[in-house]
């Protein structure tokens, strides 16, 4: 292969299935694809992350020809200009399919794994979704119906031979050059990858921001679609946990996919991790437990799931201990948190509260709330200024000893946790909030952001189970039981998290720790309020009751008290 500083633009045609040359896959041909075709294609993909931002134009920035065993492919980077002026890049593997030939197989059901996105109701809040009722094109619909006689240009991930090429490349290593770019499949040194190339490779289940592929019963490849140059937190944290700590409740990193530009700028384009065989995501496990509790006889039935959530609290704390374990690595060294940090966190709460209550006021005036939600909404609107006043007292209580800022999960909820067939809980998906820039997602913050995210996830699991049984807003006994289940999960998780005692990254005083968790819960619950009002008004009762619980909390410091 060429040296990274000598990568030429490669406009040669790429071998096509069956021999000959297929100019539609040559870099020059791909760069000439019309913007309209690219925009239409991207807008219909579930993994396209800017559906609400009106893409204005799209072009293929560069493309790397990839060939194996007589089959030709190309991996393109598509640059998308949005109406608001932002520019995003996407990875698009491409193949040719005979017109009239068999379509790619639909995604197969997958084991839950390291690339799972989860379906906690507030996990999708941070990703754009297609309009309700919108008809999406088939996932394997062509990008261009017939760029050359007899063939269509399609997404290569639906081609089994391309998936096998990826598996073999990640077993042995592979480098492809073209168009001034190098595309590299690199196994992690020392990783157990022998034999991966001989395994069947199937597409994973429906996902919103990436494409996952399952390699037999051993590994999962997460192919990133949206690309940003620099370190990717998902890969960076997985590598750190795999190679530098003894934390084993995250699937081991096995390999990476990377673009390297002519000027040596690297962009992570995928990661290979060990599979968690027979796993279910903890959202489904928790939902089943909540359902069982709500239908159990008696006023206060046994709740064995609480002990499992205590264990999840222990695992979460062990994760944070591991992430804070190396004070010599600039990317992972803990940093002292200050009163200024606390003030910034409190200001984010005010911003979220301002946005959420403005939307709530409008929805109330326009009659868009359910009758059962109106009294709670009125109470929230009446008392939110009081809550924001108490926020000053809360920040003051935290400000003198907020602990440290460390690397953390960043988008932590039940859908980001797997329960393996052996009963172990495994934490996955360290991408952070997808709507934030990569640099923001790598910024250290309080570990208690993750704790607050999980506590809000318990609220959504309890609420979802209650909604399935009907009577939300009309059956107080059922709602009380749902609240009791949520409270038990919260208490068990927090107890498990605190079993290890003091840590430098936590506030020095236990009460200050609970206050900081409360601060981050405020931020999340007001965010949820805005999201539900914009997308699912029938769900707005969940954050409304969360705000009500905070308002009534005896642990909340009061202004002037």
Q: Can you give a write-up of this model?
A:
This protein has 13 helices and 20 strands. It has 561 residues and is of the alpha+beta class. The N and C termini lie far apart (71 Å). Helices cover 37% and strands 20% of the residues. Helix 8 runs antiparallel to helix 12 (510-535) and helix 8 (374-399) packs across helix 13. It has a seven-stranded antiparallel β-sheet. Strands 3, 4, 5, 6, 7 and 13 form a six-stranded antiparallel β-sheet that branches. The protein has a three-stranded antiparallel β-sheet with strand order 16-19-20. The chain has helices spanning 27-31, 35-43, 160-172, 233-244, 282-295, 305-323, 339-365, 374-399, 438-441, 448-468, 476-498, 510-535, 541-551; strands at residues 14-15, 21-22, 55-68, 71-82, 87-98, 144-148, 151-155, 174-178, 181-187, 201-203, 210-215, 219-224, 226-227, 253-261, 266-274, 280-281, 335-336, 404-405, 417-419, 425-427.
For this entry, give a set of tags.
561 residues, 6-stranded antiparallel sheet, 7-stranded antiparallel sheet, globular, alpha+beta, disordered N terminus
Task: Break the fold down into its secondary structure elements and pairings.
Blueprint: E1 14-15, E2 21-22, H1 27-31, H2 35-43, E3 55-68, E4 71-82, E5 87-98, E6 144-148, E7 151-155, H3 160-172, E8 174-178, E9 181-187, E10 201-203, E11 210-215, E12 219-224, E13 226-227, H4 233-244, E14 253-261, E15 266-274, E16 280-281, H5 282-295, H6 305-323, E17 335-336, H7 339-365, H8 374-399, E18 404-405, E19 417-419, E20 425-427, H9 438-441, H10 448-468, H11 476-498, H12 510-535, H13 541-551
Helix pairs in contact: 5-10, 6-11, 7-8, 7-12, 8-12, 8-13, 10-11, 10-12, 12-13
């Amino acid at each position: 292969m060429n040296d990274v500083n000598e990568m030429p633009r490669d406009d040669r045609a790429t071998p096509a299935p069956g021999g000959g040359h297929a100019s539609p896959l040559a870099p020059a041909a791909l760069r000439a694809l019309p913007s309209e075709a690219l925009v239409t294609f991207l807008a219909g993909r579930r993994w396209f992350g800017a559906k609400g931002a009106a893409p204005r134009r799209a072009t293929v920035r560069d493309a790397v020809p990839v060939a194996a065993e007589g089959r030709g492919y190309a991996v393109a980077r598509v640059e998308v200009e949005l109406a608001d002026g932002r520019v995003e890049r996407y990875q698009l593997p491409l193949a040719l399919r005979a017109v009239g030939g068999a379509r790619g197989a639909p995604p197969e059901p997958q084991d839950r794994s390291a690339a799972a996105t989860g379906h906690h109701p507030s996990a999708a809040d941070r990703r754009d979704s297609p309009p309700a009722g919108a008809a999406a094109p088939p996932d394997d619909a062509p990008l261009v119906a017939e760029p050359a006689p007899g063939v269509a240009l399609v997404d290569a991930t639906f081609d089994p031979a391309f998936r096998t090429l990826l598996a073999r490349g990640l077993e042995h290593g592979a480098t492809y050059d073209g168009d001034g770019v190098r595309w590299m499949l690199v196994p992690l040194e020392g990783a157990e990858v022998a034999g991966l190339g001989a395994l069947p490779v199937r597409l994973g289940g429906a996902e919103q921001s990436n494409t996952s592929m399952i390699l037999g019963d051993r590994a999962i490849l997460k192919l990133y679609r949206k690309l940003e140059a620099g370190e990717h937190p998902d890969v960076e944290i997985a590598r750190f946990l795999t190679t530098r700590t003894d934390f084993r409740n995250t699937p081991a990193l096995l390999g990476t996919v990377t673009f390297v530009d002519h000027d040596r700028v690297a962009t992570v384009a995928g990661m290979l991790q060990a599979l968690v065989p027979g796993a279910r995501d903890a959202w489904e496990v928790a939902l089943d437990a909540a359902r069982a509790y709500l239908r159990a006889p008696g006023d206060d039935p046994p709740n064995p799931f609480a002990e499992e959530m205590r264990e999840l609290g222990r695992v979460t704390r062990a994760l944070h201990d591991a992430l804070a374990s190396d004070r010599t690595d600039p990317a992972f060294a803990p940093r002292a948190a200050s009163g200024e940090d606390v003030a910034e966190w409190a200001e984010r709460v005010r911003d979220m509260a301002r946005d959420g209550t403005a939307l709530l006021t409008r929805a109330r005036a326009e009659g868009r709330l359910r009758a059962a939600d109106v009294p709670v909404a009125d109470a929230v609107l009446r008392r939110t200024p009081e809550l924001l006043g108490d926020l000053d007292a809360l920040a003051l209580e935290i400000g003198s000893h907020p602990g440290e800022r460390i690397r953390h999960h960043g988008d932590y909820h039940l859908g980001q946790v797997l329960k393996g067939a052996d009963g172990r809980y495994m934490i996955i998906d360290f991408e952070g909030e997808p709507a934030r820039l990569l640099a923001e997602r790598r910024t250290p913050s309080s570990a208690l952001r993750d704790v607050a995210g999980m506590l809000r996830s318990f609220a959504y699991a309890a609420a979802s189970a209650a909604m399935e049984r009907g009577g939300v807003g009309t059956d107080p006994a059922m709602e009380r039981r749902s609240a009791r289940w949520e409270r038990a999960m919260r208490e068990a998780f927090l107890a498990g998290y605190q079993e290890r005692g003091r840590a430098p990254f936590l506030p020095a005083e236990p009460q200050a720790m609970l206050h900081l968790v409360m601060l981050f819960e405020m931020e999340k619950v007001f965010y949820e309020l805005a999201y539900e009002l914009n997308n699912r008004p029938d769900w707005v009762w969940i954050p409304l009751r969360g705000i009500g619980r905070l308002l009534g909390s005896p642990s909340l410091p009061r202004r002037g008290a």
